[in-house]
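ok so for the tutorial part 2 we go from a plain amino acid sequence to predicted structure tokens. step 1 is just haveing the sequence, like this:
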Amino acid sequence: EPRRAASASTKSKRVEQAKRKAGRLWADVVRQNLPCLQRSSGTPIHQALSALRDGGWV
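step 2 — the prediction. this is what the tokens look like for a chain of 58 residues:
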């Protein structure tokens, strides 16, 4: 029984770590999968989002 509890705890921790990692990576994954988001549009919103990304916000 103690082994199962430890195993469940380990699995739970791994799931939580995977969720956190996916949350951090989703913006880049979406950006890489949409060609229109890979080019600079030169618009103020693009400049603002780029600044946020480069500043560590996204």
